[in-house]
Design brief:
The complex is a heterodimer. Chain A is mainly alpha-helical. Chain A has one domain: MetI-like (MetI-like fold, Orthogonal Bundle). Chain A is built from 13 helices and two strands; from the N terminus they run αββαααααααααααα. A two-stranded antiparallel ribbon of chain A has the order 1-2. The radius of gyration of chain A is 24 Å and the shape is globular. Chain B is globular and about 70 Å long. By secondary structure, chain B is mainly alpha-helical. Chain B has helices spanning 2-9, 21-48, 71-79, 82-113, 119-128, 134-147, 153-156, 165-178, 181-189, 194-205, 207-222, 226-231, 240-249, 255-275, 277-290. In chain B, 42% of the residues are buried. The longest helix of chain B is centred in the middle third of the chain and has 32 residues, at 82-113. The chains are: A mainly alpha, B mainly alpha. At the A-B interface, helix 1, helix 3, helix 4, helix 5 and helix 6 of A face helix 1, helix 2, helix 4, helix 5 and helix 6 of B. Chain B: The chain crosses the membrane at residues 25-46, 82-109, 121-143, 155-176, 197-219, 257-276.
Chain lengths: 291, 291
């Protein structure tokens, strides 16, 4: 009896997760596949139109722009945010550093704020006429007319800065924990071998923190690829479509233009790209193995 | 973590290279500059929320409002259904958090401490759900929820947050590290059932990491924007981020209302984070470091 209970217990324990997973993930993805083959304004019955939505997407310049913008934000997080987090973690890992906890906790705070709060803050700071950033620039350099949110390039820069501000402290936590777990002896023997700071970093630190780096890279990739809140709230995807991301494209198609089939198709394209690439990354970096 | 700290305390015969004085100055200078970059926008918003409307954009900016006024807060709390938005956000986040923590702890326990057929596959399926972008389920989930008549906020706002794979992964890692098999065996010899073991042995031992997961989950739900945005159309049922968003979009850009709102919205999350920062920061990174 006891052993039978033990046999079935794990299935009972994971059942709630798989039930929810099925209802709120697998079923919706199935529905998305069906919808993507139809044209539907939200009322009546969807009309089956085959793969027309996908061929339309392939020709839709807005969708291309959205893909390009999402790619930019992915590159920003992988090549700016992740290295910045590693660098800050490295600084925080200095031996005998005072007030480490103060720095670590303050850097993390943007992550606990609501995106709407962050959007408000940066809309205030970056306002063309009254914003603090331009006021300071005017006072220091006598020039402060940059249209941070209204110029296509500057808007991308501004959103990228907000991503940097919001995510760096969060990722730093992971790197710092990993760095603290590297046995000090490894550094000592590297130093005896005459390795300088840079050599120690590439030969000792990087290999030792590889699992965490892999985790951070994959989660940053997934997070950035489905970016919605910041550009929607700060620039509304603008000016024009300069900061329109794929997730915003999906939202706009479904909830502003009532093209539910088209939106589902765009969502599936994003899903295929993100899911495919992250499985590939997982395999390459070997994370998520069963213990 | 405690191991690292203990190690630094043990006397070392020859301390590794000591940082030079200029090196120290550069280190603390950089970290302090970063501290300002991360904290200044928040302090500025806090101070702005106590300034009369005309003073918010004053230059040079003053950190201490003069004259200080609480009128902005009074206007927000009397003129807007702020507490109703706040209540809906907090209650739905609490429900989602409770369900998620239980689901994750149960599943994490099963994956950490049982052997069963199909475990590897099931774990892989669970883990891969981390790389499903929300944008792909946004449209179909919205349609399913509306068509099945479940679009009331108490159910629908909770649903997307109750089965986070990240939480299961975190629980599984923590259980492997901190709960020895012997305790479970001893409980079985005492005649405890499998669920009884989970309830009376595992859950109490898990308390620190349950706290971490709960905080994390609460923040996710409390700060979520996209799902409530598509789901809730009735102003009376708005969540806090949606409420702040309409104030912000109002034609006059009511910064004098929006700033106190942002402060009030952030106080609970920052307070909870500061109270439980140790558990949260260490709980978040523990899984990734060992994984």
């Amino acid at each position: 009896m006891a052993s039978r209970g033990r046999q079935w217990a794990p299935y009972a324990f994971i059942a709630p997760f798989y039930l929810l997973y099925g209802l709120f993930m697998v079923v919706p993805i199935g529905v998305a596949c069906y919808l993507s083959l139809t044209e539907w304004v939200g009322l009546g019955t969807p009309t089956f139109i085959g793969f027309a939505n996908f061929t339309d997407l392939a020709r839709d310049t807005s969708f291309h722009t959205a893909l390009g913008n999402s790619l930019i934000f992915v590159l920003v997080s992988l090549f700016l945010v992740v290295p910045a987090a590693l660098l800050i973690a490295q600084l925080l890992n200095t031996r005998g550093l005072r007030a480490r906890d103060l720095f670590r906790v303050t850097f993390f705070i943007p992550m606990v704020l609501s995106p709407i709060v962050i959007a408000l803050l940066y809309s205030l700071l970056l306002d063309r006429e009254y914003g603090l950033v331009n006021s300071v620039l005017r006072a220091l350099f006598g020039w402060g007319g940059a249209d941070w949110l209204g110029d296509p390039t500057l808007a991308k820069v501004s959103i990228s800065f907000v991503l940097l501000w919001r995510w760096t402290g969060y990722l730093t936590i992971f790197f710092l924990a990993a760095l603290q777990a590297v046995p000090r002896e490894l550094y000592e023997s590297a130093e005896l071998d005459g390795a300088g700071t840079v050599r120690q970093f590439t030969t000792v630190t990087l290999p030792a923190i590889r699992p965490v780096t892999a985790f951070v890279v994959v989660t940053s990739f997934i997070g950035a690829a489905q970016l919605f809140d910041e550009p929607y709230l700060i620039t509304g995807g603008g000016p024009g479509e300069a900061t329109l991301t794929v997730a915003q494209f999906v939202y706009r198609a479904a909830f502003e233009r009532q093209q539910f089939g088209y939106a589902a198709a765009a969502g599936l394209v994003l899903f295929a790209v993100v899911f495919g690439l992250s499985q590939l990354l997982n395999r390459l970096l070997r994370i998520g193995r069963t213990a | 973590m405690s191991a690292t700290r203990a190690r630094t305390r043990t006397p070392r015969p020859a301390p590794r290279r000591r940082r030079s004085i200029p090196g120290r100055i550069a280190l603390y200078g950089t970290l302090t500059l970063l501290l300002v970059v991360f904290a200044a926008p928040l302090l500025w918003a806090l101070s702005g929320s106590f300034k009369p409307r005309g003073d918010i954009f004053d230059y040079p900016p003053t950190l201490v409002p003069d004259p200080a006024t609480t009128e902005n807060y009074r206007n927000l709390l009397t003129g807007q259904p702020f507490w109703s938005w706040f209540a809906i956000s907090v209650v739905t986040a609490l429900i989602a958090t409770t369900v998620a923590v239980l689901v994750c702890a149960l599943a994490g326990f099963a994956f950490a401490k049982y052997r069963f057929a199909g475990k590897k596959l099931l774990f892989g399926v669970m883990f891969s759900s981390l790389s499903v972008p929300f944008a792909v389920i946004l449209v179909p989930l919205f349609i399913l929820v509306v068509k099945s008549g479940l679009a009331n906020p108490w159910f629908a706002l909770v649903v997307p947050w109750v089965a986070p794979a990240f939480g299961i992964f975190m629980m599984q890692q923590y259980i492997i590290q901190s709960i020895p098999d012997e305790i479970l065996e001893a409980a079985r010899l005492d005649g405890a059932g499998e669920f009884g073991i989970f309830l009376r042995v595992v859950l109490p031992l898990l308390r620190p990491s349950l706290g971490a997961l709960a905080v994390w989950q609460f923040l996710q739900s409390y700060n979520s924007f996209l799902w409530p945005l598509v789901l809730i159309s009735d102003v009376d049922q708005y969540t806090l981020p949606l409420g702040l968003n309409i104030l912000f979009r109002a034609e006059s850009r009511a910064f004098d209302l929006v700033l106190p709102g942002a402060v009030l919205a952030s106080v609970p999350t920052i307070a909870v984070f500061l109270l439980l920062r140790k558990q949260l920061l260490e709980g978040l990174s523990a899984g990734a470091v060992k994984g």
